[in-house]
Structures are given as structure tokens and as C-alpha cells.
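BUG: 3D viewer hangs when loading the predicted structure for this chain

Environment: internal workstation, default settings.
Expected: structure renders.
Actual: progress bar stalls at 90%.

Input used:
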Amino acid sequence: MNQEHGRGDTPPFSYPVRVGHVSANAVAVHLEASPTELVGLAKLWEVEVVRSLSADLQIARWKKDGVRVRGRVEAEIVQACVVTLEPVTSRIDETFEQLFVPDGSKLARVVLSETAEMVLDPEGPDLPETFTGDTIDAGELVAEMAALAIDPYPRAESAEFADRIESDDSTDAPKPSPFAVLKDWKKKD
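C-alpha cells produced before the viewer hung:
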């Protein structure tokens, strides 16, 4: 997760957490998007409407200078059906865990093999995200986790693709060869 927006603008859903104030005992935080934030999220996610977005988080210190954020994000969005373009309502309900460490921390280093290849375990935990300064944005993390759960190809329950007919097989006429055009072609001198 990139903790900075490339365009320089602020994220539509933000909840800054000062790392220095995070203790080893987990703190419960409930986040809920305002109507203005929901409009901004719909624009960011390129969906028709975001009706709701909420999250329940547990934020705690991890190792010496890292932060662990565990939580559950719930959202309701409306997208256009990929077949009929009718509105399709989707519910998102995801749990997640994310670790944050300061930029330059040895905990965020990628393990390299003897051949200088990255060693990643697809079933293992994700690498910690890095942050600069003394603040992480838990709201942006929640918005990203919800965005990852959005169905990229929503379909209404009644929507079906119609059979596509390439040619009419009911006629007995032979199909013309694609090279038939070339039979009368002669090379000019």
C-alpha cells in the first residue's frame, strides 16, 4: 500500500494514526465513512455508488517500532452489470491484517537467495508496508482492502450472455475460401 497519493491530493477516506501513540495493548477503533467520503470513494473506485463503508480495527505496536492493524471492513456498493448495464448491489465483508514498519527498517527487507532472486512464500505472510514520518493512514488501508474485494465483472442474477452466431450453418452452400480473391490476380510486368 502506498501511503502517498501520487497526484498530491488527500485520500477520500483518511484516519491518521500517530505511531508514537500506539501501545503494545491493542486499541479498538471503529471507522465509518461520511456521505462526502462515500462520494469520493465511488469516484476513486470507479463504481456508481458507495452506500456504506465501515471498519472495526485493532491497532497495536508490533516488534520495536512497527504497527499491526487487524480488522474487518464492510461496504455496500452499486456497480453497472457487465452484461446489461443495470445497477448491481454488492456487499463486501473482508478481514485483513497489515504490518507497518518505518522506512529503512530491517524488518521490511526482501530476502534474497544466493542467486540474488527474491524469495517469497505465496502462502506466507505479506511483507510489512513501510511508512515515512510518524503517521500511518488506517483509513486509506481500509479503503484499499475494500477496493481489493470489489468484483471487477459484476453481473445481475438474471443476466446471461446470448449465444453468438458466427455463420448460418442451415445453408448447404460451401463457404468461400479466403484465398478466392487471389485466384484472378496476376503479376503485372
